[in-house]
UniProtKB/TrEMBL annotation:
Residues that span the membrane, as ranges: 255-279
Keyword flag Lyase: no
Name assigned to this protein: Leucine-rich repeat-containing protein 26
Signal peptide from the UniProt entry: 1-24
Comp. bias intervals (Pro residues): 297-307
Pfam families in alphabetical order: LRR_8 (PF13855)
GN (gene name): LRRC26
Amino acid sequence: MGSLPFFWQPLPLLLLLSLSLAWAQMRPATASLRPPGDPVCPESCTCQPSDQANCSALVLLAVPTGLSWRLHSLLLDRNRVRSLPPGAFQGASALLRLDLQENGLRAVHARAFWGLGTLQQLDLGSNQLEALAPGTFAPLRALRNLSLANNRLVRLEPATLGTLPLLRTLSLEDNSLDTLGPGLLATLPALRSLHLRGNPGACGCAQRSLCTWLSQHPRGPEVEGLVCEAQRSLPISPLSAFNPCAQSPTLRDLAVIYVIGPFSFLASLATCLALGSVVTACRAHRRRRAAASRLPWRPPDPKPGTPPAQAGVGNPAAAQA
Ligand SMILES: *[C@@H]1O[C@H](CO)[C@@H](O)[C@H](O)[C@H]1NC(C)=O
Ligand SMILES: *[C@@H]1O[C@H](CO)[C@@H](O)[C@H](O)[C@H]1NC(C)=O
């Protein structure tokens, strides 16, 4: 009897059995919150198909809580979510697409997107964002499309985006951006399409560094709405030096430039020649006058008592007389 191992003794066996029974009873209770095959659809949203929650235009004031890890798509566009708190999408760890357009969004916490490591498409367009904290998009390592179009962004630092290794499309059109450093592109190695139309700075000197970067990386992204786009596709023309914002030179512009250019060159050449010959003529004239004034040497008034013979030296007129 004493040789029986501990587990085969009746009391521990009973204990184990009751424990496993209790476990089995608990399992369905927890699972009933998120039944398999039927992801929790956020309240008042429709989920058709089941992994896509459509919560568009429901006048929601906040992101629904208790999001399911089975959700692949969450449409929250046209609501009234004014701010995103830290961990706003907690639970939705398999989300691929998130649409937050037209919410009047003003504030996004630096940790709002934490846990969205699989997200591929994020649309924050048509909101009222003025600034974004550094590191806001850093957790989104799988992001391919990011839209911040039609906001009020004044600056966008490389630190705000962080390194997004897979980002292909970045839409920044219709903001108030006046600077966009080349550092931004350096952290987006997969970028193929950058939309900048409708930003006041897109035509200014502030973008020169970006232009330079693009010209040095001819296989870099297609940039829409930036000066360089037009310049790069144009044959090198003198116009780009005059008006860096011209999309394409008109016939009149070209005529003016190609007529005034050679004309002003010829005019300046003629002016130089004329000035040069005037100066040369003046110098020659002065030299001739100096020589002439040296030649007819006049003797000083003869003092009383000096011999008159000296007066004739070097003075042919006097010698003849
Ligand atoms: C989401 O629902 C709205 C109406 O509630 C509908 O207009 C819209 O087309 C739906 N979007 C998708 C992607 O199903
Ligand atoms: C995402 O970007 C790709 C090109 O990179 C584009 O074809 C697609 O339409 C974009 N999707 C959205 C929702 O912007």
